[in-house]
Design brief:
6-stranded antiparallel β-sheet, elongated, 6-stranded antiparallel β-barrel, about 40% helix, single chain, disordered C terminus, alpha+beta
Length: about 2000
């Protein structure tokens, strides 16, 4: 049974638990768990980081910890009972751990990102360090001091990590985190600010220290020991600043004691900031110990001498920039003259190079130097290793800038300056050495008290260095005598002088001595300064042990009595300089006289007077003794010396105010508490103080009185302590007298303070207006310090009364220049911070005084910084817990503050935040501080307010206007508080407290809003301010809990809940109260409320979304629609979602909630429409946002932008948004280098503008300019991009338009430039090569695609050189999760609805619109190539299949072709590289029609080759040879016979009576092919080279066999009339009325006009069959292999043609990459073997180019027996190019459109006139006249066009390309690019097996231009050759359209965005240089004048330019 746990509430997981048992909860090691229940070894509970998931786990896995339980019960919270630092450490490390792992991922992903990598490693080290410290704390073995240090270190590390990881600043007090609820907001702000400042601005250190580490001396000439002395030297004052540091080096130049680091390292301590300057140096003197001369022989003398060696200097300023310890190699210099040694360092510093030179080229001193900053204790903590290893301390000469009371020092420094010696009977000067001894009072040598410097222990004696042969030596050697104070009296120093002989013995002979006593008889020490000592002569054996004998002698020439001239005249002297640095000894006689006042009572007056002249350091040395002296004198002679003692006391007290001595204040405090004994002094002190106060007003000079007032704090301390001592001694006698005295004193003070400084007093009329002002200010500065003293003898209320009366006596106003106002506030601040104010009893007395002063200053906005400090201190004392304990008092205080200051606080915050911020950094910081302080005060005050306070506040407003102003003010301030810049970004704790206070206050104030400003009292401004505040409150970043870590989110929710939901509910409630006033906020509040609903909080969304229904309802009532709501929603959605707000969940929620809400509304339909529109916009905006993320491919971004742009244009008609997205799309295209698409995109904006002078405002990156200027700029930009995209034809159109504009303004300069630009574009068209892109159809299936792609199909324009495989791979890379479908069939619903991505990709062929250019003779290919692949709306692909029973013997009987035509929503290229398929049309072509097309295509190909050969366009005849060979060879082997077997047999004719005409047409074509072959052989014979004659003969023989196999003996008459039949242009038939007999030498062949027109060239001839694939030939020759096997052959990867070696058929094989990712199963009906393959672009079954399809509704269908069957569009097998078979828009034979050929007609088949005119009249065909249709065929007539680029076959290398005649309608690429050129040519019939016919060079003519009377003029009989239309010999070109005739310009088909409006004439092409026949012109004009149905032809219109708003 599960039992709730009592004590077992909290634990840590010891081992991971998988939770595999029922209800098991998975646990990870280290997780903390809260335990709820227990049962038989199992706990039930949850992991604290995820409290929603509860489960069970074993008890043994949990380590229990003590915990404190809050809110025991269902909602209990567990707080572990451990050190708060440990708790914080644990939770922080958990958060860091997750972030640290993310840093690793970032580091791995971005190898070059150094910062993240560094942070990763640094954080790792810090985390390990914290874990180690945590372990130390948990073990609990640390001392208190060490524990404190460890915690300090931990918190410092935690703060560092939080800062690095951009986490929140943690407020702490004494290392523990602070709960914001347990302290006032002002305290919280101070803590946060303190930590922030600590982090930001480290306080510059005032004390500095120099670390020196002596390493070695490098020199080649060593061999003697060395002594190295360092000291710091001030070159400005020419004096040392420090004592010396002394290091001994051995003979190798390294320290003698390397193991003792303190002997080689030192710290020069207590350097002031003033010492760190350029002219302060580190000076190093080096002394060698050895022979007198450096070069003497070793055995000459055994005595060692100290001799000068060298000197080095380095400026201390060089170390200031170094952050770490730097090694220096100092150059060592030697003296040129030994006598200059004492000043060698000055010579080096001043660079007097004549006095020194380098000691040696390789001599250098290696030292390590580093400047350290901070006090010495701080250094001990930070550089612990340094001090533990050992470092000597080298002191400063004299005291540091700040003297500490505990410092004990007694050092006497003596410098051996110089000497003057006689020769002493010697011929040369002496070598003098001085030996120094210190002797005590008994004459004994004091051991170890002579030190050469720090670093080495002191010795008994000191030997100076020796200067060679110098009777006036100068040493300047400093020694230190650290003699104890108690040994100073009676001690002296003795100097012994010896001559050092350099002879063999090396003796040192004593010849004299000097001495100096250290203390005078009166107790003064040896004065500082230089002393000239007397040298007393003596012999070597003189006995100096008895010091008493010579101490009686004079020691200094300055002290000699006047009559001792003998000694004064002695030439020999010795000079020393002494300097005492002692905290106990004095050299001042006046000081000693004062201290010994009892010995000389007569000197008391003088001593007291001289005290002020004594140096402060001397006074503080003897502070206690001095004070005892003063109070002793006061007790004994108060009447006589009272005033002087008081003045001396004031002087000493003020001396301690000096920063140098301020640390002695505690010494004085201790003296007062413990040593002061003047029990009677208080009377005199009060009396004298009152005397001074009473005379302030009368005094002319206030300086002394101000000194007295400045000392009043300590005077009161002495008064109080004296009274206490007296009361203690007398049992409280004279209490009333004392009180009376104090009251009188305060009365005097109040009178003095009450004096106004305006000269009104009679006394002050002659004085400066501010005469008392300064004195009042001085007193007020010290007055608050008196409170604590008064409290020792008076009650709290009495003291509060004193203070209130005293402060209340101050004048209300002050002089402008008087400093009193600021001081008043400072005094008030100290009062509020004092112990007196903390007491609630005194607080109620003092509060009104404080508030009155604050009010006055805040109203005038003066001294706001101080006002903020005072207010902060006041409110810090009021805590929430006080409200319980002292409810009435606290409530009254809050009342007073609210009444006095709330309005002022709001006003002040508003004024401060609206001011411009000051420029200086310090001022700006202060400005931010004061704002933050006032804000904290406001929050603290509001947090203390209860219901009662709010009621009183609101009731206090007498009028509605006042209440309205207050509400507006407080709402505005709240909006300011919510601003991100109000607090630093890591102050989340402060922000949450702020928000909590705001929402609480708003809940109170909303009641006032409802009660006072609704119905007839409605006030829009207040309500609007309220709603605006609520919205920005909800949207502020610090409340978006979703962005926080789980632990942080949990903490916030536990403490405050989700404040967004609370505010959302309040908004909804207030909105419901508005009633009809809601209309005032529609549409203004739509945007803000929409922003609120986009916050990803489900509860908030559920509350707020219904408001939109309410808005729609009220708007419907007002306007009858809700267009305003819709417009505002749409406008706002774009900007909000682009900022990253909103998600798919929101879209669904918005849709579902609102649809549910409007179910019962009368306006339901329009509501649904609005919701649907907004939802669709959201879908697109979400897709756009996802696509714009970093790392997405450009294609996806572009597609998404196009979708959104079109949505704004078509569905929403939002012009400004439309233009914005145009420019976004333009930028994307430029980035992707899609220059053509970029041009089309910018053209959209250009079309919206007109050539007008209307001014346009600044918009996007456009300046303010006229509409004309902007359109001009756009035109130029577009032309530039068209040029870069090689789309020069489009650029030309814009150039012309701009040129027309320049022309109209007579701007010939720009017109000239534009014409030149246009000309350059023409040149580029003719000279530069352009690649024809491939086109691909892509289907995106599945719900995982973005909305703009989902379940849609597109046609994409590929990149240059991009083929199907590359394109497919690119798409799979763009959509890495997509699966490539392996078939081309239309997917079913399971694929559409799948939660996946499926891609279906295959190639399609373009159907050009621009037939006129493509059909025209003589147009170069590089012009035609543009029109083949530009402005394409339609694309096509074919799929062969078998219908019915398949005849294995002859598959042609059942071989059908399924043709699919895709029509796009826009033409390619356009504003995108891909466009969605708008319409899909499917047509089935019967086997017979297929056969007709195949043979006709082959015939056209043969004609083209023959013509090119005749016109000498071929460089060689090989292509014609191969084509002839292929056709004849295939026919001989039975190809055509297969067609005969299939369609000419009796059974077929009887079963298909409707195909009679088609059978006839097939028969005609077969005869025609034979005739063309015969003519071709004749031409071939003329041009065939000699070596190919045998082949030609073989071809002729085979041709005869072919004719016989077809049963042809003679050609029919209609065939014989022209040996080569042209599927030619009706233009030729119209313009040629005279027969033209064609000979072999003729330039033209005469074409027979066949009744059924299928002019196509077989691009991929099936004649290229190999022996391995002879089964293909069997389809033609009758062999047995079935065509199914042909269609299942594998693709050749890159070949687009087949060689004579017979590679597999490329037209039907699969192109899916071998690595395809799998695809769903096909349905059974699609499992035909031919349908299961995607074909590569080079392997398409058929290729053709088609015009724009007609609308079937415009065309009549008289033939109902068509075998075309329309199917629902489905993707089919595809190929590289598509053979034109029929237009899917035409379902009957009358849909067949006539097309031209450049071939003249041989004969025309008889056509029914009625039918002909019927058919022709229904078509418009600009600019080409139609040709007569063949009425028997239901397939469309089409025009052949050349395929794309040259085919690539690995086996066709022997065949060079060739160029056909430019005068023919087929392009040059027609044959040269056809794969039939690379292998043997087969007959047209053989292609039938694959339905493989090459691209047609022409396209179905556009209906309508054929004249209606043409039928009547055309012959009806086709049996007679004389009746046929014959082309003339003169090669007259075909006529142009009317547009061409009327306009000399050649028409350039426009893109849809460039197209001309219907009412404008399109620009026409200039006429050809050929003569244009009049008759043809008439025909064309007539054809243009009307259509058969009476509707004039209109080209695809371009949209009319719309007016643009001022953009």
């Amino acid at each position: 049974m599960w039992i709730p746990t009592e004590n077992e509430k909290y634990g840590v997981v010891l081992a991971s638990f998988r939770g595999t048992v029922q209800h098991g909860l998975p646990l990870e090691i280290g997780d903390t768990v809260q335990l709820l229940e227990k049962c038989e070894g199992w706990y039930r509970g949850f992991v604290l980081k995820n409290p929603n998931a509860k489960g069970i786990f074993p008890c043994s896995y949990i380590y229990l910890k003590n915990a404190h339980i809050k809110n025991k019960g269902q909602f209990e919270t567990v707080i572990p009972m451990e050190d708060s630092v440990i708790t914080e450490m644990t939770s922080t490390l958990r958060d860091w751990g997750a972030m640290w792992k993310r840093l690793y991922v970032v580091k791995s992903a971005q190898h070059t990102h150094k910062n993240e990598g560094d942070l990763f490693h640094r954080l790792w080290h810090v985390m390990n360090e914290i874990l180690d410290l945590r372990r130390q704390v948990l073990v609990g073995h640390l001392t208190n001091d060490r524990m404190r240090d460890v915690k300090h270190h931990i918190t410092a590390r935690l703060d560092w990590g939080n800062e690095q990881l951009c986490l929140d600043l943690v407020p702490r007090r004494e290392f523990s985190m602070v709960d914001p609820d347990e302290i006032s907001v002002t305290e919280l702000f101070k803590l946060m600010e303190h930590r922030h400042r600590k982090k930001e601005t480290p306080v510059p250190a005032s004390t500095h220290h120099l670390f020196v580490h002596m390493k070695s001396l490098m020199s080649f000439s060593l061999g003697e020991e060395l002594e190295v002395f360092f000291h710091i030297y001030d070159s400005r004052e020419n004096r040392p600043l420090s004592e010396r540091f002394f290091v001994r080096l051995n003979k190798n130049g390294v320290p003698k004691s390397p193991e003792k680091t303190e002997r080689q390292c030192t710290l020069f301590v207590d350097l002031g900031s003033s010492d760190l300057r350029k002219d302060v140096y580190i000076v190093v003197h080096i002394i060698r110990i050895g022979r007198m001369g450096a070069g003497e022989k070793k055995n000459l003398c055994s005595v060692q001498y100290r001799r000068p060696f060298g000197c080095a200097v380095v400026s201390i300023a060089d170390l200031l920039t170094a952050d770490s310890k730097d090694d220096h190699l100092l150059k060592v210099y030697a003296c040129n003259t030994e006598s200059e040694w004492h000043q060698i360092h000055e010579s080096i510093i001043r660079k007097i190079s004549s006095r020194y030179n380098l000691a040696g080229s390789n001599t250098g001193l290696a030292v390590s130097l580093q400047l350290l900053h901070g006090d010495i204790e701080q250094l001990r903590r930070e550089y612990m290793v340094l001090f533990t290893r050992g470092v000597s301390i080298t002191k400063k000469l004299g005291f540091s800038d700040i003297i500490m009371p505990g410092d004990m020092r007694n050092d006497l420094y003596i410098t051996l300056e110089k000497g003057e010696f006689e020769k002493g009977g010697k011929s040369v000067a002496r070598n003098v050495e001085i030996t120094v001894y210190v002797l005590d009072i008994d004459g004994q040598v004091m051991k170890s008290y002579v030190a050469a410097g720090s670093g080495e222990p002191g010795g008994d004696e000191y030997h100076s260095f020796v200067l060679y042969h110098n009777n006036s030596p100068r040493w300047a050697e400093q020694i230190k005598l650290p003699i104890p104070v108690d040994m100073f009296r009676g001690s002296h120093v003795r100097f012994e002088f010896r001559h050092c002989s350099t002879k063999d013995k090396g003796e040192k002979k004593l010849f004299g001595y000097s001495f100096v006593p250290l203390m005078q008889e009166d107790g003064r020490t040896l004065p500082d300064g230089t002393h000239e000592l007397i040298i007393h002569k003596c012999e070597e054996n003189a006995n100096l042990q008895d010091s008493a004998r010579y101490l009686k002698l004079p020691f200094s020439k300055a002290n000699l009595p006047g009559n001792n001239q003998a000694v004064k005249g002695v030439k020999e002297s010795f000079w020393i300089t002494s300097f005492l640095c002692s905290t106990k000894l004095t050299q001042n006689g006046d000081m000693l006289d004062l201290l010994k006042w009892r010995a000389h009572p007569e000197r008391i007056n003088d001593s007291l007077s001289k005290l002020k002249e004594i140096d402060g350091s001397e006074i503080v040395k003897f502070l206690q003794d001095t004070l005892d002296t003063l109070f002793g004198i006061l007790d004994e002679s108060s009447q006589r010396y009272g005033l002087k003692v008081f003045d001396c006391l004031v002087h000493i007290i003020n001396l301690l105010q000096d920063s140098k001595f301020q640390h002695f204040k505690p010494v004085m405090d201790t003296y007062i508490e413990s040593h002061f004994a003047g029990a009677l002094s208080y009377r005199d002190l009060i009396k004298v103080l009152k005397w001074y106060v009473d005379r302030i007003i009368d005094a002319e000079h206030q300086d002394h009185i101000q000194q007295v007032l400045k000392a009043s704090e300590y005077i009161f301390k002495y008064i109080v302590q004296s009274r206490r001592l007296f009361a203690l001694a007398t049992g409280g006698q004279n209490e009333e007298e004392f009180r009376c005295c104090v009251h009188e004193l305060f009365m005097s003070i109040r009178f003095f303070l009450s004096q106004e400084n305006k000269g009104t007093s009679p006394v002050t009329q002659t004085q400066c207006p501010c005469v008392c002002c300064n004195s009042q200010a001085v007193f007020l500065r010290t007055f608050p310090a008196v409170y604590g003293e008064l409290l020792k003898i008076f009650t709290v209320k009495e003291v509060a009364g004193f203070v209130k009366e005293t402060l209340g006596s101050l004048p209300a106003t002050a002089h402008a220049e008087c400093p009193l106002e600021a001081v008043k506030l400072q005094c008030m601040a100290k009062t509020v911070e004092s112990q007196l104010y903390v007491n609630p009893d005194s607080r109620c007395t003092l509060l009104p005084v404080v508030l009155r002063l604050l009010q006055a200053h805040m109203q005038e906005q003066r001294d706001l910084v101080m006002c903020a400090h005072i207010l902060t201190s006041m409110l810090s004392l009021i805590r929430k817990d006080d409200s319980v304990t002292t409810e009435p008092a606290v409530s009254e205080e809050v009342d007073l503050i609210v009444e006095s200051l709330l309005g002022l606080l709001l006003q002040t915050i508003l004024e401060i935040t609206n001011r411009p911020q000051p420029a200086g950094t310090n001022m700006r910081l202060q400005f931010q501080d004061v704002t933050g302080e006032f804000v904290a005060c406001l929050l603290a005050l509001l947090r203390q307010m209860t219901d009662k306070h709010y009621q009183q506040l609101l009731q206090a407003f007498t009028s509605k206007d006042d209440l309205r102003d207050f509400l507006l003010q407080i709402f505005t301030v709240f909006r300011i508080l919510i601003r991100p810049e109000m607090f630093p970004k890591d102050w989340t704790v402060m922000r949450l407290v702020t928000n909590n206070v705001i929402i609480t206050t708003v809940l109170y104030l909303s009641d006032a809003l409802r009660k006072n400003f609704l119905n007839e009292k409605f006030d829009y401004k207040v309500w609007d301010s309220y709603f605006y505040l609520s919205v920005i409150f909800i949207n502020q970043p610090c409340l978006q809990l979703e962005s926080f870590s789980p632990s942080k989110r949990k903490k916030i929710l536990e403490k405050y809940g989700d404040m967004r939901v609370m505010m959302g509910c309040e908004i909804f409630s207030m909105w419901q109260n508005l009633g009809e006033h809601k209309l005032n906020f529609i549409p203004a509040m739509i945007g803000p409320f929409l922003e609120v609903t986009l916050v990803p909080q489900p509860d908030l969304r559920n509350v707020m979304i219904p408001i939109f229904h309410d808005m729609m309802d009220w708007e419907q009532r007002r306007s009858g629609n809700f267009k305003q709501v819709e417009a505002k929603l749409i406008d706002k959605l774009d900007s909000l979602m682009s900022e990253g707000k909103g998600d798919e969940t929101y879209r669904e929620l918005f849709n579902s909630i609102l649809l549910k809400k409007i179910e019962r509304e009368t306006w339901r339909e329009s509501g649904i429409s609005l919701i649907a529109t907004v939802t669709r916009l959201m879908e697109r905006l979400l897709d756009y946002r996802d696509c714009m993320k970093l790392g997405e491919v450009d294609g996806k971004k572009i597609g998404c932008t196009v979708s959104l742009l079109n949505f704004y244009k078509t569905e929403l008609n939002k012009e400004e948004m439309y233009i914005r997205y145009i420019h976004k799309l333009y930028d994307l295209h430029l980035k992707a280098q899609n220059y053509t698409e970029a041009s089309y995109t910018l053209l959209l904006y250009d079309e919206l503008l007109e050539w007008s002078e209307r001014p346009l405002r600044e918009f996007l990156n456009y300046p303010m300019q006229s509409e004309w200027q902007r359109k001009e700029y756009l035109h130029l930009t577009i032309v530039q991009n068209f040029d870069r995209g090689k789309c020069w034809e489009n650029g030309i159109i814009l150039c012309r338009e701009l040129a027309d504009q320049y022309d109209s303004y007579y701007d010939y300069r720009n017109l000239s430039k534009m014409r030149m630009m246009e000309a350059s574009l023409y040149d580029k068209i003719m000279d530069q090569q352009r690649l024809e892109p491939e086109f691909f159809r892509v289907g995106f299936y599945g719900k995982k695609f973005p909305f703009f792609l989902r379940n849609k199909e597109f046609v994409c324009r590929g990149h240059d050189y991009e083929r199907l495989e590359a394109f497919q791979q690119r798409m799979l890379n763009e959509f890495p999760h997509a699966i490539a479908m392996q078939h081309v069939n239309q997917p079913d619903q399971t694929i559409y609805q799948a939660e996946a991505q499926y891609l279906q990709i295959y190639a399609v062929s373009p159907i050009p619109e621009s037939q006129d250019v493509l059909q025209r003779d003589g147009v170069p290919d590089n012009i035609k190539s543009f029109y083949k692949v530009n402005h394409i709306w339609r694309f096509r692909y074919d799929r062969p299949f078998h219908k019915g029973t398949k005849d294995k013997e002859n598959e042609f009987k059942s071989l059908w072709v399924e043709r699919t035509t895709l029509t796009l929503v826009q033409s390619l290229p356009g504003i995108s590289r891909w466009f969605e398929v708008d319409k899909r049309e499917l047509v089935e072509v019967s086997p017979l029609e297929n056969a007709i097309e195949v043979i006709e295509n082959k015939n056209l190909q043969l004609r083209t080759l023959i013509t090119q050969c005749q016109s000498r366009q071929m460089q060689n005849i090989n292509p014609l040879t191969m084509c002839l060979n292929g056709v004849i060879d295939a026919a001989v082997n039975g190809g055509l016979a297969r067609y005969q077997e299939a369609f000419f047999v009796k059974d077929y004719v009887m079963n298909h009576p409707e195909d009679g005409e088609k059978i006839g047409r097939l028969r005609e074509l077969m005869f025609e092919q034979a005739h063309i072959l015969e003519y071709g052989l004749a031409v071939h014979e003329k041009f065939v080279p000699q070596d190919m004659k045998p082949l030609h003969k073989k071809l002729v023989d085979q041709f005869h066999v072919m004719k016989s196999s077809l049963g042809i003996q003679e050609f029919p008459a209609y065939v014989r009339a022209s040996p080569v039949h042209f599927n030619g242009s009706p233009r030729n038939s119209c313009r040629n009325s005279v027969p033209n007999i064609l000979s072999l030498d003729g330039a033209r062949v005469v074409a027979r006009r066949s009744p059924l027109t299928y002019p196509s060239v077989n691009r991929y001839s099936s004649s290229s069959l190999s022996s391995q694939a002879s089964n293909e030939v069997s389809n033609i020759t009758g062999q047995s292999e079935s065509s199914d096997e042909v269609f299942n052959m594998q693709p050749s990867p890159s070949t687009s043609s087949l060689s004579s070696n017979h590679s597999a058929s490329p037209n039907v094989t699969s192109s899916a990459p071998s690595s395809a990712r799998g695809s769903p199963q096909l349905q059974d009906k699609h499992k035909h073997s031919r349908e299961n393959s995607c074909l590569s672009p080079r392997e398409r079954p058929v290729s053709a180019i088609f015009p724009t399809p007609l609308d079937p509704a415009q065309v009549k269908a008289p033939y109902q027996n068509s075998r075309y069957q329309f199917k629902k569009a489905s993707p089919n097998q595809i190929g590289d190019t598509i053979l034109p078979r029929s237009d899917p828009n035409l379902s009957a034979p009358d849909k067949v459109r006539p097309t031209f050929s450049s071939w003249s007609l041989d004969s025309v088949k008889e056509v029914n006139n009625t039918q002909f005119s019927d058919t022709v009249g229904k078509f418009l065909s600009p600019p080409v006249p139609p040709r007569p249709p063949y009425s028997g065929s239901s397939a469309k007539s089409i025009r052949s066009q050349s395929p794309g680029p040259m085919s690539r076959s690995p086996q066709k290398s022997s065949m060079p390309p060739f160029t056909p005649s430019p005068t023919e309608c087929q392009s040059a690429g027609l044959v040269s690019n056809s794969p039939v050129l690379s292998g043997s040519y087969s007959s047209g019939i053989s292609s039938l097996s694959r339905c493989s016919v090459s691209e047609a060079s022409g396209t179905e003519a556009t209906a309508g231009d054929h004249p209606a009377h043409l039928a009547a003029t055309m012959p009806n009989s086709v049996s007679s050759g004389s009746d046929e239309l014959i082309r003339r010999e003169n090669k007259t070109p075909p006529p142009y359209s009317v547009y061409e005739r009327t306009n000399p310009r050649r028409p350039v088909p426009l893109p849809h965005s460039l197209s001309i409006p219907p009412n404008a004439d399109p620009p026409a092409l200039p006429p050809k240089p050929h003569q244009i026949r009049t008759s043809s012109m008439k025909l064309d004009q007539a054809s243009d004048s009307r259509r058969a149905d009476g509707v004039p032809h209109v080209p695809r219109p371009r949209p009319l330019p719309r007016k643009v708003s001022q953009l």
